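re: that chain from earlier
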Amino acid sequence: MLVFNQDKLEKFGRRHAAARKPIHRWLEAAEAARWETPADLKRYDPAASLLGKGKVVFNLGGNNFRLFVIAAFAAGVITVEWIGTHAEYDRMNF
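^ sequence. v structure.
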């Protein structure tokens, strides 16, 4: 998959050192993946939350961090929309 807005991941990782390795692992897996359907993504990560219309939330770092993306499965593209702590996620409305 092609991952857009990686700068959001980098900025977050600079502020939260504990998130760096989980972000790196997720990014490597996402870039190597070819998720053509939401079912393909769920086979990779059963804990990912599919919110509809390509919206996906991943739990990173033992559920300490949340990553919100929009996946265009047919195009092979993921756009990073938001990343934050679990507490920050609880205040968001996606």
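The longest helix spans residues 20-32.
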